Amino acid sequence: MSVFNQSRGRVIQIIITSVFLIITFQLINLQLFSSKYKLAAENNAIYRKIIYPDRGIIFDRNKKALLENTISFDLMVTPAESKGTDTMALCNLLEIDTTEYKKRIREAIFKNTRVKPSVFEPLLGPELYAKLNENMYKFPGFVLSERSVRTYPYNTAGQLLGYIAEVDTSFLRKHKEEGYEMGDYAGMNGLERTYEQVLMGQRGIKRYIRDNKSRIQGPYENGVFDTVAIAGRNLFTSIDVEVQQLAEQLLQNKIGSAVAINPRTGGIIAMVSSPSYNPNVLTGNARRKNWGRMIMDTAKPMYNRAIKGQYPPGSTFKPLGALVALDEGLITPSYGVSCYGGYGACGGVYVRCEHKNAGHAANLRLALANSCNSYFSDIFRKAIDNKKYGNTIQGYLKWKEYMNAFGLGRTLEVDLPSEDKASIPDTSKYNHFFGGAKRWNSCSVLTLGIGQDKMTETPLQMANIMCIIANRGYYFPPHFVDSIENEVEADTMLLAKYRNKHIVTRISDSAYQAVHDGMHDVTVYGTAAYIKIPGIEYCAKTGTAQNPHGKNHSIFVAFAPKDNPKIAVAVVVENGGYGSVVAGPIAGFIMEKYLNDTISTEGLPRVETITKTNLIPDAIKRWYYKKDSLRIAKIALEEAAAKAEIQEENDKANTEAILESNAIPISGKDTNQKIKIKSSFMLNDDKRKRRDSGKP
Amino acid sequence: MIKQHKISQGVDYTVIWLYAILVAIGILCIFMVEYRTDTDWIQTFLSGKTNYSKQLIFAGICTIIATLILLTDSKLFTAFANLMYIFGILLMLSTFVIGKNISGSKSWIPLAGGFNLQPVEICKIFTALALAKYLSRQETDFTKLKSQIIAGIICLLPAVISVAQHESGMALVYFSFFLVMFREGLSPIVLILGFSFVALIISTLLIEPNTLAIILTVAAIVVIYIFRKNIKRSKGILYLILLIWIASVGIQRFAVPFIFNNVLECYQSARVYSAFGKDYDCNLNQRSAKKTDKAPKKPDDYNVRQSKIAIGSGGLFGRGFLKGTQTRGKYVPEQHTDFIFASLGEAFGFVGSFLFLLIYLFLLFKIIAIAERQRSVFSRVYAYSVASILFFHIAFNICMTLGLFPSPGVTLPLISYGGSSLVSFTILLFILLRLDADRQMVLR
User: Fold this and answer.
1) Nearest chain B Cα to A209, which residue?
2) Which of chain A's ends, N or C, has fewer CB atoms near its CB within 10 Å?
3) Mean pLDDT of A536-556
């Protein structure tokens, strides 16, 4: 009986074996050939916690910290795990309603998917943090995550330092290779942006095992895959925080800019653009509140006029004109012209001079001290019509080349983002304007020689030219960061351009001496005669840029001391009138503070007076007044229409007009800015107080 | 005392060793699943509160049961086979009255001390014995259809009760007795038909109904063309082919939807569909529609997906004992019972899983070898029953964790946590060893 059907035992064995083979194949398939399961398991079970390092600190030249780090907390949510959260309790704590709650969850899902944590409420205040921390058990899917936040102990230099903010999608797209993730903070402006790679440090990642309810079970593989957070490195800048504070104070209630550079290194000592803002208003959860208001502000507190504002240099250009002529060998310091109140060699184009007495332009020194328009018109024509270059176009191009070498019409590559190159117009622009290359000559663009026409400079460029003159022919590109902590090769490459000496002219020291003497005379008996720095001789040049839309802009450039200069300054105050009236004293106090470390007791009341002087145009004052009203939309429409009209007129008027003495054609770009301010509105008193109260 | 000597004489120690190894692996796997880094494992092992500790106690109980079985006389089993079968059936029926509902299946009888007994597990043993008893009767001629039908009823009666208790997974296991009957002379056509039926159901799920009908028709025409000469000789073949064709199309058009919509419950249909990557619309299901008016929720294949992730993440050598992140995170539901193979796959990888499968394969082949060396039909049928039950359990369970088969909810023999399961498999195996020890005897 037992032998019966014995072959069927074999069949059963075959069936069993084949089923086991199928199982084995599936095992091979799952375990050896499908990598997705390993990934899926890691996504499931490994919780990556990013450890944010401390950002680097930015120090001033005396090792005072311009900003510091404090700890704040973000409320993070992982939408997929947030089911079962006590929504009402959370909404009550955060003082939001459930619609807002749902909206934020939707946003989080949209931004960062359902399974990754996103910021629900950033940068909680200490009180809210304490309340939330007690109640976190009610809110599954929510965690409090630590985040380092900037504070600014000196309440200063907001525009220079920039700010950090959460990265957005466009930022992530642009910086794909740098390992940012949604929810990270990055430097968005100023030094924080330029030196982001240095300051950010290296994020660390800790891995934890979590269970199906997302509870942490312990470190993954005892932490062998964890990386340590490396703190960001510190920056040592040339900023002098006290000078910076003083400059900001002096420019209060004004629109304008001041730049002070150490000519020996190119290190920027102070850079102010007014109106400025207290950087503390853009940190923590204050940011949300203030950001919109600052962006909308017509006086543009976020706009760094020192590197973006464009002003016709006016008379402050004259020393440069002299340098070109000297370097070309067209004149010697003893060259003189006879001026009887104006320059008439161009016939129709007559440039008036403020002086009529004979001999006020008998040599370069006198001409500079007296700011003789005829003299500088004359030497400008000499440069353009230089026989060496054949024709006007070539002559002009050579002149433009000089300007570019002096750092005009191009960026100086300062270590702040979005520096403007201002304008030294190209020949094509004039060809277009006059209707052909043959239809203009040195007379047509004559006022370029006295810093007018279509040329503009940024305050930074003005200060840099002072450096060149102070250094007698060379400069280091202006910059803030002198050195980086634990400098690595990449940093050295980053800073190399600032350590590279640019030699601009080959003019003899004696010729430079004439320029120096002329500028010194300005401070002795010239336009800046009443601005004194106790115990220090200095050189300066005033300028007044005519403004067709209001009071002239006040410009002042200087360097001090006369021998062995240590600081070069440029100050522009919009609507400030003559250069010596507002800009001059401001520059004087900046130099005094830097060189003497303190302001003399006689100077202090004057500092107060200047601080209080309000030169903000009425238009802006009115804007602040109207800001809250519903009329804003209507005004914006009218403004746009008016702007288009005025701009057309201006462009035409600029070069065609035959200009009197310091008459100023304003370049198109500059006009834009001014019109924006003009057709805008104004501070009412109480608004202004609020704005100013943020400042020291 | 003389009897004591005799016990160890005929007992097959290989099977005992394999049994011991598997139980040990099982306890380790449960330990792996439940382990927490901060607990003192020696203490928890002895506390009796954790599942691995309980399983250790069950193993102890099983040792006693096994010894007792080895001490009995083989004739006892032949004598009481039918009685025990009736007892088992009554036990199963009693669950309708005193049953306890555990995870949707009212198939448990609560015992003292928080333990529960699942009669359907125990009943497998009695059914195996009853089948062996019936087939080994002198008067049974298994070539006759009548005896085949009676044998079929013996096997499927517990399955029917089991289905009524919503424990359909266990019911499937009772089909394993068809392998035994095949060995004893059941026509292979039954197996082939069964296999074809399953294949037809699967293709119905995978292929769009009309396309499948066309494919079947084309297949029928091709077969008729091939056999055209034979058909000329006898029309019977033509009719047979046409009959098969009509049956197939009928099954795929009417029978399969009927089974899914009217016989199976919504979650079962959905499980079957999802195993083949399809979604089942529960609104079609008559049984669930009758019970609730609520729109039935669409069940997902979370268990199987997580189990595949766990096994897949094991790789070649696995993550190592106690290091599986899926296991420690408890991502796989029921990972100490039905899905325990997932933890094993994650911790020990392909190499470990394959070796583990080899142990099972070796055990199965060993039992078949034991079956073939029996002199008495009773022992042989019983041995084949043991092999088939084990094989079905292993195949269903592992295929389920690997996503090859819809999850019927059967345990992995000797590994899964659970007293009923462990005790019943122990009894199953040790009765076999007892019978095998007396293989020189002819038992009826």
Assistant:
1) B325
2) N
3) 83
Nearest neighbour of A46 by CB, restricted to B325, B388, B398: B325
B375: nearest CB among A2, A23, A212 = A2
pLDDT for the residue numbered B371: 92
Mean pLDDT, rounded, for A150-169:
83
Q: Give the pLDDT band (50/70/90) at residue A628.
A: low
- pLDDT tens-digit readout, A240-278: 888 888 888 888 888 889 999 998 888 899 899 888 888
**B387 and A12 in contact by Cβ < 8 A?**
yes
Contacts of A34 in chain B (CB under 8 A): 312
Decide: pTM greater than 0.80.
no
Closest by Cβ to B312, choosing from A1, A2, A30 = A30
pLDDT band at A553 (very low <50, low <70, confident <90, very high): confident
Measure B21 CA to nearest chain A CA, in Å: 20
CB A556 within 8 A of CB A227: no
pLDDT in tens, B184-200: 888 888 888 888 888 88
What is the rounded CA–CA span in Å between residue A422 and residue A451?
13
Q: Is B372 in Cβ contact with A210 (below 8 Å)?
A: no
* Mutation target among B140, B179, B181, B325 for the A interface, most CBs of A within 10 A: B325
Nearest to B130 by CA among B61, B193, B84, B99: B84
CA–CA gap between residue B155 and residue B176 (Å, rounded): 9
Least confident of A560-574, A618-632, A636-650, B287-301: B287-301
* B404 in A contact zone (CB under 8 Å): yes
Given a contact cutoff of 8 angstroms between Cβ atoms, the answer to whether A313 and A572 are in contact is: no
**Cα Rg of chain B, angstroms:** 24
What pLDDT was estimated at residue A657? Answer: 41
> Residue A331 contacts by C-beta under 8 Å, 6 or more apart in sequence?
A322, A325, A364, A379, A382
Would the CB atoms of B354 and A24 count as touching at under 8 Å?
Answer: yes
Dihedral in degrees, nearest 10, Cα atoms A564, A570, A571, A574? 160
| Residue in chain A nearest B397 by alpha carbon | A23
Of A70, A84, A57, whose CA–CA distance to A129 is shortest? A70
The answer to which of A375-379, A380-384, A680-684, B156-160 has the lowest mean pLDDT is A680-684
How many C-beta neighbours within 10 Å does residue A450 have? 31
Question: What's the 3-state SS for A330-370?
Answer: CCCCCCCCCCCCEEEEECCEEEECCCCCCCCCCCHHHHHHH
Give kind and range of the element (H or E) at residue A150. Answer: strand A142-151
Helical spans, DSSP H, in A33-153: 36-45, 87-94, 98-112, 126-135
State how far the Cα of A27 lies from the Cα of B402, in Å rounded to an integer: 7
CB contact under 8 A, A218 and B350: no
Q: Which residues of A611-648 are buried (b: 16+ CB within 10 A; e: fewer)?
A: bebebbbebbbbbbbbbeeeeeeebeeebeeebeebee
Between residues A228 and A685, the one the model is more confident about: A228
> B389 to chain A nearest CA, in Å?
12
pLDDT for res A664: 42
Question: Distance (Å, rounded) from C-alpha B353 to C-alpha B322?
Answer: 15
Degrees (nearest 5) of the Cα angle A335, A338, A342?
120
CB < 8 Å from A in window 31-90 of B: 37
Q: Which of A16, A19, A45 sits opposite B329 (nearest CB)?
A: A45
Please tell me the distance from the alpha carbon of residue A468 to that of residue A433, in angstroms, as a whole number. Answer: 32
Task: Extract the tokens encoding B320.
Answer: 């190592």
pLDDT surpasses 80 at A654? no
Q: Which pLDDT score is estimated for A665?
A: 41
Average pLDDT over every residue of A669-686: 41
Specify whether the CB–CB gap between A75 and A142 falls below 8 A.
yes
Q: Are strands B105-110 and B116-117 parallel, antiparallel or unpaired?
A: antiparallel
